[in-house]
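Review form for a predicted model. The reviewer records the input and the model, then writes brief findings.
Reviewer: anonymous (R2)
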Amino acid sequence: MEPETSIEQEQAPAQQLDLRGTPCPLNWVKTKLRLEDMGVGELLEVFLDDGDAIRNVSRSVKLEGHRIVAVSPVGADFRVVIERA
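Model under review:
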C-alpha cells in the first residue's frame, strides 16, 4: 500500500479509530459509519491489523470514493489516514 501523499504533507486527523483486533467486515462498517459522521475533506486516522483488514478496508474506502492520504506500518499493524469525500 503506497500513500498518495507524504506524511509530512498531512493535516492533523479530525478523528481516530483503533480497530486492531476487530474482525472483517466490522472494521469496514465502523470506518464507514465514522466517515459518514464527518465533514467533506476531514481526515480520519484508522489503525488496522495486517492481512484482510488492511486490504479490505483500503479497497472499500476507494470504492466509496474516499481518498487514502497515507499508509504507514505501526509494528505489525497499519495506520491509514483517510480523507472523507
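Findings: Confidence is low (pLDDT under 50) at residues 2-8.
Further findings: The CA atoms of residues 3 and 46 lie 14 Å apart.
Recommendation: see findings above.
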